[in-house]
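Aim 2, interim progress: modelling of the 2-acetamido-2-deoxy-beta-D-glucopyranose-bound target.
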Amino acid sequence: MRVEVIAFALFAVALSSKVQPPPAPFNPECRVNDPTAWDDAELGKVPWFDVDLDAPPHERYQEIAQVYKDKIPPVLGVLQSMVQMIFGDAPVFEMIEGWFRDAYEGGRYPAPYSDEIQGIADVVGIPVEQIAMMNVFYELSRWCTSIVAESSDNSMWHARNLDFGQLFIWDPEIETWDLTDTLRQVTVNINFMKGGKLLYKGTTFAGHTGIITGMRMGEFTLSMNAKEVSDYGLLMEWLTGDLKDTNFAMWVERQVMENATTFEEARTYLSNVQQMSNCYYILGGKELGQGTIIIRNATSVEQELKLHDGNNDWYLLMTNYDPQQDPLWVDDRRTGGNACMKELGKDGVSLQGLYKVLKSKTTLNKTTAHTVVMSITHGVYEAFLQQCPNPCWPF
Ligand SMILES: *[C@@H]1O[C@H](CO)[C@@H](O)[C@H](O)[C@H]1NC(C)=O
Ligand SMILES: *[C@@H]1O[C@H](CO)[C@@H](O)[C@H](O)[C@H]1NC(C)=O
Ligand SMILES: CC(=O)N[C@H]1CO[C@H](CO)[C@@H](O)[C@@H]1O
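Predicted structure of the complex, ligand included:
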């Protein structure tokens, strides 16, 4: 059984069953002028932890693993029930687990992440291949919206929604995706420390050793969006040991945070690194004009979009499709998101303004797990848990 077959089956199940568009009248309105779209009470709900990069890798995530000991296994539970739903009693999940055990034991997980994963597994008390598998599942499904913007007061801002969990079991009772809901409960912010100082901040899920969004203190901000193409072929090659010297994008994000000291160094690193997945890196800096979207395949840059490059003025917005490609008709967050940014305007760019854009149902979906808004200029890094109250698109 190949991973592609599984993915295809999941897609078929997700599209054929229970998922309905929101009932009329559904109005995906932009909420930038709606005062109720912002609530101070939403601040600070995502907890902060420290990860000390000078500690041995095996120990770095122990505090997080301890706190989330009981919440990490349910994530695996959702993955397992999804596989069972498709394949019934056939031992497919055990087989997939076996592939990951072989990959882990075969040394295909790079240092220091392999030891970090072992450290988490030891604290949670589950087999290491399960944490190893979770780390890779995160790599495969993240549909998101990211924005880099300049404001009228000459500040740089960067914001993103993380959409996750479509194709992973729709719960008709509460009209939500089980995986998205489970992931909301394990969302964490991390201060990565080095030499006793805060080097960078990142947001991720407990149990995962990569980051999805991050800010190198005083220098640059980064988020990554998936590209709407299948990475399963390369994943299979990696699992079977045929693909060596590759990188997972979420670990690339940590590497760039640790090793690049400026926006330009980060841009060079993200343009050249060899990696497994196709993706979009959205990179922002501290100076006006430092904003770019690097469109990547496994080996090189396919295209790059920049602030003020003729097509783009004061902001860049990226979902999961190349600029020349039409989004899936069920998933046009781009048109609505752009309209909402224009309504916000350069004057409105701020923590609250960008949050409201991402809180609008033009970009918010049932799969949205969290929102992060960052600014090097203002030293802002805020993560928010998201919900999309009915009526809302399932994906
Ligand atoms: C950072 O760079 C150093 C020196 O080039 C390298 O040894 C190290 O592996 C890099 N760290 C990461 C996390 O990529
Ligand atoms: C990646 O993109 C480059 C530049 O467009 C292209 O030359 C190369 O063939 C692509 N590689 C893959 C694996 O698609
Ligand atoms: C309504 C919403 O949740 N936002 C987007 C999600 O997907 C629908 C259709 O898939 C888009 O039209 C929305 O822009």
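The domain at 6-48+143-385 is CATH 3.60.60.10 (Penicillin V Acylase; Chain A). The CA atoms of residues 249 and 275 lie 7 Å apart.
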